[in-house]
Design a protein that fits this description.
It is built from 16 helices and 16 strands. It is of the alpha/beta class. The protein has a five-stranded mixed β-sheet, with helices on both faces. About 50% of the residues are buried. The protein binds ligand P61.
C-alpha cells in the first residue's frame, strides 16, 4: 500500500470541540495573533508540535502502574538504562525531564565563552543553550537544504567542506564537539544519510573532535535510511540505529518525539570526565541520577516507547501518514517543502503568499489564517522564530526559509482528520491573495516566538472560509 493504514485500533477517545471562525477571530485578537497563546481546547486539529503529544500504547499505560517511585535506585531506571544502552550504545545514561535540559547540562559543562558548536542546523533550544554559554552555534548543512524544491533524499546532511572551513576558522581547540540533528527539524524534518554520518566521523577523527547526535527523531531518520540508502533495505531499524550511533560519542534526546512519551529525555555519552561534572549539575538542577526530574513511571513509559518506535509497521504508517498529507497538498499545487519530511509537512509561505514581504511575517500570517478559518494550528518557522537584529546596525536579518510547519502527533489523528487538514489548506490556497501581513508589537529577548504579540496590518480584508 502506498499509504499504510493504522497498525493499531483505538481504545480510548478524547472528545474535541468545534469552534466558529467568529469565536476564533476573538481568541486570536486576545492572544495577540500568537498561536502559542491560544487555549488548546479551542483547537480542532492541533499540529503545533509532534513533541510530547503522542498517544501512548496500552503497554506504556500499563507500565505507568509499575512505577517504582523510590528516590534512589528505582527499578524503572535500570530498565530505562538498559534499553537506552542497547539502542544507543553509550556507557552513561542520564535521564532529564526533556531535551533542552540534556542540552543545558551538556553545554554548561563543555562550553566556555568564545567556543563554537557546528551542527547541520541547530534547533532553537539548542542554539539558545549554546549562546547562553557565550558560545557560537554554527550551521553547516548542505546547500540543497535551503532550496524547498530540491528533492535530494538526504537534505539533512552535513556539508563536510563547510564543516572543515569552520574548524580551520575557529580552531580545533575551540570546538569541544560537533552535533548532527537527526532528522533535521529546522530544515524540514530531513534525514541524514549513514554515509554522511560515517564521513563526518572520519573528518572529525582527523581533528580529534567528538561527534554527538541530537537524536529526537532518530527512528524516523533510520527509517529513511532503510527506505532510501543502498545496502540498508534488509536491515532492521534497530540494527541501523546501532550502526549510526556507533559513529558518535554521545547524544541528547527529547523522548517527547521518538520516545513516544508526553514528557522525558536523556543525555547519553562515553566521556568519563564530562560525566562527573554533568552528574553534579544534574543533582543541582534536576534530581538524583536515577530519576533526573522524572517520576519512576515516566522512565518506564519511556523505556517501552523507545522499543515500540523501532517497529517497522509503526514507522511505515507514521512516515506514510505525513506523506499522505504532503501529497494531497502537492497534487493540488500548494507549495510545500520537498521531499516531505518525517514528522511534518512544511508549507512554503514565501510562495503561498508572495504578496506579503518577509518583514510582514508571511508564515505567521498564514498560520493565523489557517487557525481562524479552520481551527487548525500549525507553527511558524521563519522570521518570528529565527529573525535576528544585527548587532551594531539594528537591521533585521531574515532566515532563508519562511515556513508553516504542520507537525503530526504520533498515533493521534486519523487519516480522515488529515484529509480535513488537506482540504482546508487547499481551500485557503485558492483565496490566498486576501490574506494580509502582520506587524510585531512585542518581542522578548530570547525565544521570542513563544510570547511575541502582533497586530493585523489590514483587518478589513477578512477572509471568508468556504468550509469550516
Ligand atoms: C518541536 F517551538 N522540538 O519541534 P524539548 N532538538 C530538536 C527538537 O525538535 C526539540 C528539542 C531539541 C519541539 C518542541 C519545541 O521553540 C520551541 O524536549 C531537534 O522540547 O526540550 C524540540 O526538546 C528540544 C517547539 C521546542 C518550539 C521549542 O516542536
Amino acid at each position: 500500500m502506498k499509504f499504510p493504514s493504522e497498525p493499531f485500533k483505538i481504545k480510548v477517545v478524547e472528545p474535541i470541540r468545534r469552534t466558529t471562525p467568529v469565536e476564533r477571530d476573538r481568541l486570536l485578537r486576545d492572544a495577540g495573533y500568537n498561536l502559542f497563546r491560544i487555549p488548546a481546547e479551542s483547537v480542532y486539529v492541533d499540529l503545533l508540535t509532534d513533541s510530547g503529544t503522542s498517544a501512548m500504547s496500552d503497554s506504556q499505560w500499563a507500565g505507568l502502574m509499575l512505577g517504582d517511585e523510590s528516590y534512589a535506585g528505582s527499578k524503572n531506571f535500570y530498565h530505562f538504562e538498559e534499553t537506552v544502552r542497547s539502542i544507543f550504545g553509550y556507557t552513561h545514561v542520564i535521564p532529564t525531564h526533556q531535551g533542552r535540559m540534556a542540552e543545558n547540562l551538556l553545554f554548561s559543562t563543555v562550553l566556555k565563552p568564545g567556543m563554537c558548536v557546528p551542527n547541520n542546523i541547530h534547533f532553537d533550544t539548542t542554539r539558545a543553550n549554546i549562546e547562553h554559554q557565550g558560545a557560537e552555534a554554527t550551521n553547516a548543512v548542505v546547500k540543497e537544504a535551503y532550496d524547498p524544491a530540491d528533492e535530494s533524499p538526504f537534505k539533512g546532511n552535513m556539508d563536510l567542506g563547510r564543516l572543515e572551513e569552520i574548524i580551520h576558522r575557529v580552531g580545533r581547540d575551540r570546538i569541544p564537539l560537533v552535533l548532527l540533528t537527526i532528522t533535521n527539524n529546522s530544515g524540514g524534518g530531513q534525514p541524514v544519510s549513514m554515509e554522511n554520518v560515517r564521513e563526518t566521523r572520519a573528518l572529525l577523527n582527523r581533528y580529534e573532535i567528538p561527534l554527538f547526535f541530537d537524536a529526537c527523531r532518530f527512528a524516523e531518520n533510520c527509517f529513511f535510511i532503510k527506505e532510501r540508502e543502498p545496502g540498508y533495505a534488509d536491515r532492521s531499524i534497530l540494527d541501523i540505529a546501532r550502526e549510526l550511533f556507533r559513529y558518535g560519542d554521545g547524544c541528547t534526546m527529547s523522548a517527547k518525539k521518538d520516545g513516544l512519551v508526553n514528557i522525558g529525555g536523556f543525555l547519553s555519552l562515553n566521556d568519563e570526565r564530562w560525566v562527573q561534572d554533568i552528574t553534579n549539575m544534574l543533582i543541582l538542577v534536576e534530581g538524583f541520577p536515577t530519576y533526573g526530574g522524572l517520576a519512576g513511571r515516566d522512565l518506564e513509559a519511556m523505556a517501552r516507547g523507545l522499543r515500540e518506535v523501532l517497529d517497522e509497521d509503526y514507522l511505515s504508517f507514521r512516515v506514510g501518514q505525513v506523506r499522505y498529507l504532503g501529497e494531497l497538498l502537492d497534487h493540488a499545487g500548494v507549495p510545500i517543502l520537498k521531499p516531505i519530511g518525517g514528522h511534518a509537512v512544511y508549507l512554503n509561505a514565501k510562495d503561498f503568499l508572495p504578496h506579503i514581504a518577509q518583514h510582514e511575517f508571511p508564515a505567521q500570517s498564514l498560520a493565523v489564517a489557517l487557525y481562524r478559518d479552520f481551527g487548525i494550528r500549525g507553527v511558524e518557522i521563519g522570521t518570528v522564530m529565527f529573525g535576528k537584529k544585527e548587532t551594531g546596525t539594528g537591521r533585521v536579518l531574515h532566515p532563508k526559509l519562511e515556513m508553516v510547519r504542520l507537525a503530526i502527533p504520533r498515533r493521534v489523528y486519523t487519516n480522515m482528520q488529515i484529509a480535513y487538514v488537506a482540504e482546508s489548506i487547499i481551500d485557503l490556497y485558492r483565496r490566498r491573495e486576501r490574506i494580509r501581513g502582520l506587524t510585531m508589537t512585542y518581542e522578548a529577548p530570547v525565544l521570542r516566538h513563544f510570547t511575541a504579540r502582533f497586530e493585523e496590518l489590514d483587518r478589513t480584508a477578512h477572509i471568508q472560509p468556504v468550509i469550516s
